[in-house]
Amino acid sequence: LKNNSIASSVDGDRLWQRHLEMATFGPSENGGSTRLALTKEDIDGRLRLAEWAAKRGFKVFLDGIGNMFVRREGTNPTLPPVMTGSHLDTQPQGGRFDGVFGVLAGFEVLEALEDTRTATQHPIEVAVWTNEEGARFWPGCMGSKVFADPNKLQPMHASKDINGISVHSSLAQLFLAFPTTPRRAVGFPVASYVEAHIEQGPILEAEKKIIGIVTGIQGTRRFRVEVEGFQGHAGTVPAELRKDAVRASVNMIAKLQDFAYAADSRVRFTVGRILVEPNAPAVIPGRVTFTIDFRHPELSVLNEVGDQIETICAQNAAGCKFKVNEIARTNPTDFKGLIPDLIEDVSQKLQLSRMRVYSGAGHDAENLAMLCPAGMIFVPCENGISHNEKENVEPDHLKAGARVLADVILALAKLVEPLYAKRD
Ligand SMILES: [Zn+2]
């Protein structure tokens, strides 16, 4: 154990094998994973992680939204834990590394500490956040959102999947599978949080860097716009008498996008779902519902553009009634300070190529950043492809990310002198 480092004890083969093993839960046809939140596949994957934890003597806990915590005790158990982790749920036909890497890299850090009998003052916990992807239940980052704000527990329990199955009843299945696992109240003090993740974008690969030091996560506002026209016969109603919900919506969307993209080149404005009713070729559409996903790194732009949506819709309603509902909002996250600097410092000591990057995708770390100093470590993924069965990474890059994570966690959890302190 040289220079307060356990990086050399990180076992890249073990880390890779664990990824392959986790991918056996919900394998998809073309080599990816389909492990939607709180399904049997997700629960079975968590059970495997709990088995690995038990073998090393780590404790496992679950909270009221199904977040799972694997804990390696510190010499001062009353200190708040230093936390790492990510998620094990995937998109349908998703990849084997998105989220999984953060959980397994965290677990590898615990194992490396155990292998070297390294004692830390703070306990260290690896979190598995429930329903990060938001693919089965709305909204995403559900577990970490509730962790950061326990008042959201009850509303999230009521969220249902497309088959009408609630989070609440799916959680019952999880708890049934973990009958003796101690339950914790939702939300507790955390000393600091560092999440490792694949980049899910092309920048690190293009710049030939192995470590991304994440400086922030852009904010998101999501809206659902309901446009109500008047259903009628496509052949008989003259133009001036129509209240055509598609015509109004198409105009609204075009004007909204023109306005949003005029703000600057960092605007991301997506209308990804349009529902037309009755959706018949010979019927003037009576009703259209469309979604808006608007993202930007700056709160001011998020506010200014987002707050104009209602006005722009009003200017283009063409006689239709409409309603703009804001259904989710996450402000931009700024990881400035301690953790990014520490990641930079450790990467430099380990002689790993690195650069600062900004995250376009949302992550659980944005919720933890509301509670404690937080940050993220990115590693490259092949061609930037993610949320896809083709998602792929270099095993060496996973190892490098885990090595950085190990020394960052070690620094935060405070090594106990003398080195190699024996634990009982
Ligand atoms: Zn993820």
Notes on the structure:
The strands form three sheets. Strands 1, 2, 3, 4, 5, 6, 7, 15, 16 and 17 form a ten-stranded mixed β-sheet that branches. Strands 8, 10, 11, 13 and 14 form a five-stranded antiparallel β-sheet that branches. Helix 3 crosses helix 13, helix 8 crosses helix 10 and helix 11 crosses helix 13. The chain has 13 helices and 17 strands. The two termini are 20 Å apart. Helix content is 33%, strand content 21%. The chain has 424 residues and is of the alpha/beta class. The C terminus is likely disordered. The longest helix has 19 residues. Bound molecules: zinc ion (ZN).
Briefly, what is this?
This protein has 424 residues and is of the alpha/beta class.
